[in-house]
Amino acid sequence: MQTTVASLAEEAERQIRDGVWELTPSDRSLALQAEAGLREAVGSPDTQELRSEKDRLERLREVLAVLAIALARTHGRLAWFLSGAITALEPVLHWRALDADHGSTFGTVPASPEQYTDAETAVRHLQDTLTRITTN
């Protein structure tokens, strides 16, 4: 996830630097709202590993909700960027933190601690990117 998000960030920053993407005031406002929502959802790296897997998964799903709501409110390059971010984090939707108890899991799988950390780090990279692109 980190690699995909890093590529998205690089492309967004390049498009802005090259003048291909000029954020409107409403794009900037929405990007900052999304950044704040991501920051609130995922929290700091200092506390993430102290949380239960269930709590970490809930927070990562909240990140996807923040991104989806922002995506629903925009069009153009910001929408494309947010869509790419959602796609990068899509594996989170297949994770579960609870035991299956001999029933169907609808294709979900337990995630490893490293996968949680990868996703949380990717979200923080998204936060940083949203902050940077709104200050250009």
**H-E order:** HHHHHEEH
Question: Termini, distance in Å?
Answer: 25 Å
- Specify the helix fraction band: 55-70%
What's the tally of helices? 6
Description:
- This protein is an all-alpha fold and 136 residues long.
- The protein contains six helices and two strands.
- A two-stranded parallel ribbon has the order 1-2.
- Helix 4 (53-72) runs antiparallel to helix 5 (76-89) and helix 4 runs parallel beside helix 6.
- The longest helix has 23 residues, at 113-135.
- It is elongated and about 55 Å long.
- The model has no long low-confidence stretch (mean pLDDT 95).
Short note summarizing the structure:
The chain has helices spanning 2-17, 25-42, 45-48, 53-72, 76-89, 113-135; strands spanning 95-96, 109-110. The chain has 136 residues and is mainly α.
Write the layout of secondary structure elements.
Elements (H helix, E strand, L loop, with lengths): L1 H16 L7 H18 L2 H4 L4 H20 L3 H14 L5 E2 L12 E2 L2 H23 L1
Parallel strand pairs: 1-2
Using brief descriptors, characterize the structure shown:
136 residues, mainly alpha, two-stranded parallel sheet, 6 helices, 70% helix, elongated
